[in-house]
Amino acid sequence: MSGLTYGIYAAGQVAATAGPPDDPAAIDDLVGGLSGGRPFVVREYVHFLGTPADPEKAQVLAPERRMRELTMPDEWYRTGNRRLDLVLCYLPEERDLDGWLAFIEQAVHRYGALAHFLQITLEPNFKLPWIDGSSPGVLDALTAGTRHARRLLDAAGHRDVLLGFSVAEPPEFLGGDEEFWAHLEALAPADFAAHIDYVGLGLYPDAFSPVPEPALAGLTEHALRQLREESMPRAHLGPDVPIHVAENGTPTGPDHPPTRPPGSTS
To answer: Is the dihedral of CA 199, 83, 205, 215 positive or negative?
Structure first.
């Protein structure tokens, strides 16, 4: 366990759901207490909503403001041994590859010197509302966007920024994701896999239905093994490409209050 680097998404906005306004002082205390000065990942999201942007999503996600500033001031991400994990989300109502590539250029110009990890798209393998897999043209947004981001990062001298994408697993979730992996399998490694430094996993075994605590370990292992041994080889991504648990947790709500531990069914 000592070799693992942990992290958090500490803001209050999650897709269309928002908590109380972000409290920078409380976030600083939280992250400082969790990290203890050790390397610590802080995850943030900025969104491309199309040209023009969908008004409903723009009101909730505030993409123009997020391109100007993240949850905390820039300097905060450079101190305390923090590593910014920045996700570029693709959420237009219609296919808009040109607008997306321009957005990536804007994001690299704004945050390239600040980011440690740059993730292109969010879980493009499943068609969930407010998640990139539901957006028209998402497969090309991932592959063309990754190549474009790599060129931009290299040209700007940000060769230390690690470039990746994330998926939800296992494939039986929502009936499978064969189309996604078949698309990556058909690409030559030089067109996609060669540009990937890591693959992120959205790991939520207890998020959408009650799961007995003893089953959590097996479900977690299943998702990781499926990604490593079955899915990633199809995309020409070998065992040298790290897997990051990019997201993990259990949503709270009327049937799952914050006081109930993961895996609890009562």
So the answer is: positive
